[in-house]
Structures are given as structure tokens and as C-alpha cells.
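Sample A.
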Amino acid sequence: MKNVRRIAKWLMACMMTVFLAGVVSAAETTEKGEISSFNNYGENGVYEAIGEYEVAYGSVVADVTRKLPSTLTAKLTTGEEVEVPVTWVCVSDNLGGNTYVPKHSDVSAVYTFEAQLGDGYKIAGNLPEDYVMPFVTVSYTQDAQELNSQAPEMDTEINAAVDTASGMSVWSWIIWIIVIVIIVVVLWWLFAGSKNNKEKLHAVIKMKTGCR
């Protein structure tokens, strides 16, 4: 019986230790601070991209965000300067969309990725309502843009050929078919006639040879 009580006390002690550790960890997480500003960003209410990045056409979003900063330097309401962990989310492609597309049909797309604060940090409540979180821009490399500039010319040539073919009337197609049939018949007739002439020539030669 005593052993059972000892085990129960030991388990209770372990559970209390784990619980208190969780409470302390949660408290540390929630008390990291409120951010009053980011270094070199949003001065005088002007919000500009903190960086411009280029990626290869077809790059997946994980490869894109891997290029972006993992932390941003910020100042807390207490005056302390800290490195805030951030993640990045695409909010615009500047063409009407709000998601990143590895192979966008329009390679002139310029994506806006907005910073998301890590656990325990939040924006101070005294910041303006129209405050814009730090952001970066991401575009495709120059090679992809040059390839896209050549595409309209190719499309124009293809469309012209298609328009020419579709612009031919039914009678035009009928005439072309008749011409092709006539050419085939004439060629066949010439070939068949040549073959018959050769056979007649051989027959005449045989007859003359037989007479001798």
C-alpha cells in the first residue's frame, strides 16, 4: 500500500513539474513584447519594400520564402531592440491575384510577400490603423521576361496562319481537292500508259524475233 502511495506522489510531482514548465514557457511566449516599429521601415508613414528579389520561373513557394529574411530588427514599446522571427505570405501579384504562382501566364507579375510575426510578438496598439506590415517584392528573372516578350510574336504568326486557313471558303477547299485529284489521275495515267507502251514494244520485238 505504501509503495502505491509513493508511486502516486511521484506521478503527481512529475505532472506538476510538467504543468509548471508549460505555464512558464507559455508566459515567456506571450510576454515577448509589442512592436512599436521596425528598423528603416515606415518612416513618416511611407511604406516601401524592404527588399526586392528575383526567382527562376517555376520556383515553388518554399524556394521563394527560403530566400527571404527569417528575422527582422524591431523596437519594442519598452525601447528594447530585438530580432523578431518572421514568416512570409504572398498577398498580391500586382495583376489582381493574391497568391504566388510558380508558372504565371504573365511573367511580368510582381509578387508582394508580407511578414507574419513569430509567436509572442504583436504590433503595438498605438500604431496607425492603416499600418502596413513589412513586405518584400518577388519577380521572375530577366530570362523569363525576355522569353515572354518573344511569345506574342510567335502567337501572332500562328494566329495569322490559322486565320488564313480558316478564311478560305468552302468552294476554295473544293477547288483545291479537285486540282489534287486531277494531278493524281494524270500521274496515274502517264504511269499506266508508259507501262502499256513498254508491254506492246516487248510483244512486237518478240514477234519479229520469232519470224526470223
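Sample B.
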Amino acid sequence: MPAGAGSAVVLTPDGFLLTSAHVVEGGDRRGRATFADGSEQRFEVVGRDPLSDLALLRADGEGLAAAELGDAEGLRVGQLVVAIGNPHGLGGSVTAGVVSALGRSLPARSRRAGRIIDNVIQTDAALNPGSSGGALADSSGRVVGINTAVAGVGLGLAVPMNAMTQRVIASLMSEGRVRRAYLGIAGGPRPVPPHARAETGSVTCVEVVEVVEDGPAGRAGIRPEDLILSVNGAQIERVEDLQRLMVAELIGTPVDVRLLRAGRLLELSLEPAELET
């Protein structure tokens, strides 16, 4: 990777680093990292997950000062945060700001798939090219996000440090990749028809817009215009709700899908496949 191409956060004293997936995209899986004390070490890319825009690196050194990880679930709008990184190759830069908004969504794509990163943090702490992969920290110095995008002047976005991100990190550390389940549908949010709300107990749902031919949903009999109400008992109100359920443990495991078709309640069983990225 070119010098000054991005930033990273030290996860463990034995050299695991966390950065943005787009910082280390391309064929070169090796590079050189410069640390806050001025030392340089070579690193290797352990794994990338473009659908969360996270990547795990492994540096050669030992005894690194690891960052303390926080939990973005505890953030509040207006809370002070600082962005730490390497903007324009200026290492160790720190900018201060506040949490401008929570719960933002950010599209992410791999070569074969697309996904929405949800609960993204919006901040007015200045981010610039090279800030990606750096820490967004709270006033106690805990990493609550990984800076990922500059959406405009005073408008930066960070992937939240939460339980989902911790799962991604654990998968990259153990397998070098993130496995996800796949239904084979495209859809969008839609209100449940008023006459069906009392019977279904739902107000909003996900309408199936497209079904991938010979995908898990298609084989199970799901059709365009079906309204998905729940999966394995979990209520589905947004596409993000479906995404959140598509964890590796569901691959090849039968799940129950409750849906509304032309005013009739149906329950189908399907087996999610593994998402190819």
C-alpha cells in the first residue's frame, strides 16, 4: 500500500491491528505501519470484510500499546468525541467534535454482494483522506468507532464498535473472513395493510421485490410482493433486521418465515445458503 494511505487501531499487544477494508483493498497483502512512537513494522493483511468495511492486520512486533475498546451503544448525540488518524500522511493527528447523529446507514459492496452497514456514527470531527481506519474515541479514550468515510464538510462517518463489530473482528481473527447467511431476495420496507395489523401484530414489514432464481427463498416458494413479517420468531420491520439475522450459524439451518401473501398469512421453511462475496 502507498505511504499515508490510511490509519489503524492497535487491538492487541502482539500485533493485531484494525482498519477499514477499503484502506487495504487490492492484491498487495503486505505493507508497513508507522506507530505513535515513530517505530515502523511490517504487517500482513489477515482478512478483509468489505461488507462491514473492516479489515484485520498483523504487525511483526510485540509489546504494542493496545487501545481500549468501548461500546457505541452507550453514545448520545452531542457527546464529545475525537478522531485520531493519519490524514494526508500527517500521523498522530487528533481532531475533536461531537456525535452529530446516530443510527445512520452506509451502503457497502463486495465484488458479488451488497449490504447496508447500520447504526453508523455521524460526527463533525474533521476527517480527511487518510483518516479511514483510525479511531473515533470518546472522552475517556475508548474506541467507539472506526472512521470510514467523509460524506461532506463537517460530516464524517464511523463504523460503530458494538457487538456486531466484535463478531466481525473475531471472525477475521479466527478464519480470515466473515461468513454470512443468504436468503436470495431483494426487498424494502412497507406498511402492513391495515386490515392485517391486528392479526399479524405488525405495523411495518419487508416487501419482497425480487427473488433470486434457484436461491434459498425461491426454492422455499417465496414470491415477489410477499410481505415478510418474521424470521424464526424475530419481527422484521426493515431490511436491516433481516441482515442482522443472517449470521454464519444460520447457514444450512432451517428457519421459519412468516409472511403475508394477498392478505393470507403463511409460514414457510427455508435453509439459508452462504453468501458469496
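B remarks: The chain is about 10% helix and 45% strand. The mean pLDDT is 91.
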